[in-house]
Amino acid sequence: MRKLLLLLSLVVSSYLLFAQQPITGKVVDAKTGAPLAGVSIRVKSTKKGVSTDNDGHFTLSARSGDILEISIIGYTSQNYSLTEASGITIALEPASTELKEIVFVGNRGAGRAKTETPVPVDVIKIGQVGLSSAKMDLSSQLNMLAPSFNYNKQSGGDGADAIDLATLRGLGPDQTLVLINGKRRHQTAFVALFGTRGRGNSGTDLNAIPEASIDRVEILRDGASAQYGSDAIAGVINIILKKDINHLNVTAGYGSYYDHKYNSLNNVQPSQYVTGHQLDGQTFTLGLDYGLALGKRGGFINFAGNFLTQGKTFRQEPDTNLTTNPVALPVNTGRRANGDASVTSGGIMFNAELPSAGKTTFYSFGGYNYKNSNAYAYSRNFSGTINSPGEQNLVRFPTDANGNLVFVPGIMHKVDPSGPTVTDPSVIGSANDIYFNPIEDVHITDASLALGFKSKTDNNWNWDLSNTFGVNNFHYYGDKTFNASLDAAGATKTHFDDGGFYFFQNTVNLDIDKHFKNIAQGMTLSFGAEYRFEQYGIYKGELASYATIDTSTFYYPSSPNPSKKAGGAQGFPGYRPSDEVVANRSNIAFYADADLDITDKWLVDGAVRLENYTDFGFVNTYKLATRYKIAPTFNLRGSVSTGFRAPSLQQINFSYVESNVQAGVISLVNILPNTSPITRAAGIPDLKQEKSVNGSLGFSWKPIRDLLVTADGYLVKIKNRVVLSGEFSASDNTLDPAIINALNSQGIQNAQFFANAVNTTNIGLDVVVDYTKHMGKNTFKASLAGNFQHLTIDKINVPSKLNDNDDHRQAFFSDREQLFVKASAPPAKINLALEYDINKFGIGTHLTYFGEIKLLGYGGTVTLDDGSKTVPELFDYKAKTVTDLYADYSFSKKITLYLGADNLFNVHPSFGYVPGARLSAFDGETGGPWDAVQMGFNGLRLFTKLAINL
């Protein structure tokens, strides 16, 4: 009897002991094995429960035999009978591909299903959608898929040809923060100057991140400065890297433009232009990724790499016969090589996690990318080197001691290839003119590395300590160009080291959070600190890249006018010793974020952030967001927040003598740092932070199982936006004498500077509709993504010394520059994607509508060709729709082939000139027939891609 009682006592004690022990486990996606955050786990008998953390882990108290109810939107709910106390792994089956995404951006605690967030978040699986398009880089693919993501491919914009700066909601490229795995990504060292939208801004080079390394992209379309700090005024792009192991994924692609209408080869006189082939812009891409398991506790390391090579494109109006064709354009002598730059780039990336025997996990990710961009600058014409207005008779070609041209084959071109090589500019005519196109050869290196530890304390506080390093270096070279002041020796010196600049950033983060299940229906409290150090530097080029070696005057044969030899490399003069700078700053920040489920239906999220910068001081920002479940399938959401963007070190310290081209006239302009005596003389104060107020209101609605609709309206008001001013000249006698004296004392003729010049308001609406219908082995998908926005300029903050007349106000920030700010995004962009899959075969289309935008030419006004009147030089880029078509075939579950055409009907933008003023064409920002508008001007693009998953 005693033995029986002892046995029963042991059984009861074991049961009670087990009942008191915490139950630990993990919830994963049944198909991918990826951990699921935010999963609700409740004990059926008591209804008490918890949610999984960011790594899918949970801990709760329960008895053996209890039933656990596991549920999350987008997955089939499951009941689990508890038989063990630890090591539980629960796999949930996705219920709907549209709803299963868990997003981590927009909340500093645990993730949520994208339809349950209080702010709009797009989730884009790049590996799935990028294959069905001729678009070969990340920026162009996001431009097609995300409603308020915008970028303009630049041409003739110096370094802007080499980097695609993107924007959200029609704001500046530096007003969007980019994260990788939730950690701040460094910006590029580049500052947009000539030939670009976002003039005076920096941004992040998304194309420096290998596509093969990316699992998905989360785009938070809402102001988030209170949560993430500077640059998050327009929103946040969070790039999540792959964690896949034991699978080799290979993607290869080929694409080429076939513009049978505007290719320069189709011109009536092709020798007027630099030309390529009928199939140009030929592109090849290769992407690889593979993962390995690390240790025995779920660790991994994933390696990925991408290689891309893309050729130049050449575009001109084919008919230049003005006498026979009423819509013909004159020969474009200012930009004889008009089109996209060539690009060669390659990058690698890794992502790794290594859990320890305890609760701590070490993680790391990073990579390296190299890019070479080779772009043509504006043309130099020998006939334009003498008696040319505004040129001051500057010779831009190498000449001998007698002033005769030294012809250099392979670089210089003759308009009439069969004609004589005429060396005297006084007898050169349009039929036998000689020209060359300087090449801007840009080499960009980009490196990053993040290291961190994350863990959970015994009382369920999650902590994450990390250090993230990043550096970007821009190095310019001038190629196939000349420094005319080297005289005849300049004919052999055709390559120049122009110098460049770099940007370095190191960020230390400590993030702490905990979920309190007994506060209302659950609350997650997050707080943390950040320390960031930044350095920006400009380094000079070689002497011949910027200097005038021979300063003497000479006379051309048959010309009585004295001439001078232009110094520096034509196309892109090098950085000078006076431009060199090394500037540092640091900041420290603290934030707190509380995410509270007041009821099962009502969620409230609040955040506050305090930051202090060593160069401009203290800022504080706030955010309040909420979501209310009006019905099981209808969520109402909204937010209000304040935001800021610190002026970048690039904007504060940039200095350069730029070769500017306006109306075919080449001039040198000094871009001055904010600390320059000339800037001070003009009354420009130190740059200060941009401040914003953001508001949004929207809903997510799932009226039927296969249909999801979201709509979000937004308002963004920004004060003190940093822009680059227009030009001020020492020859302008109406300027304040202090400004003229400062210019003359520095020997500067023309100057520009950065200033907190503009206040804007942007109102818009994002609409996304997704429908997926499975019918046996067949699937139909439809997606509609649209952005509608309107930006107004509320105020231009003109300094008092430049606010004395309309000419100076226009020079400070002209009507033309205002239209560029407004044209960062079209007033409407709508993308409709349709796809039908039949067993192994699929076919689909993308229809993209770009709304009308209007820009001004350099002159502001233009005289009609018949001389009848002068009108505004307004370029009206009409609304256009571009049609893409593709098909795919799966040879097996592991191999799929894609082929198709983007811009199937070869649609181009409207020409950038005023009707009736054809003789004044090519006065836009690119110097070509079109400005750099979003739809691009390269026309039809054919492609094929192959995906192999082993």
Describe the model.
This protein is mainly beta. The protein has 10 helices and 49 strands. The protein has a 22-stranded antiparallel beta barrel. It has a 5-stranded mixed sheet with strand order 10-15-16-13-14. Strands 3-2-5-6 form a 4-stranded antiparallel sheet, with no helix packed on it. 8% of the residues lie in helices and 47% in strands.
The end-to-end span amounts to 64 Å
Radius of gyration using CA atoms only: 31 Å
Number of strands: 49
User: Helical segment tally?
Assistant: 10
The main pleated sheet reads as: 22 strands, antiparallel, barrel
Shape: globular
User: Percent of residues in beta strands?
Assistant: over 45%
Structural class: mainly beta
Uncertain segments of ≥5 residues (pLDDT<50)? 3-8, 10-18, 387-391
- Residues in helices, as a percent range: under 10%
Mean pLDDT: 87
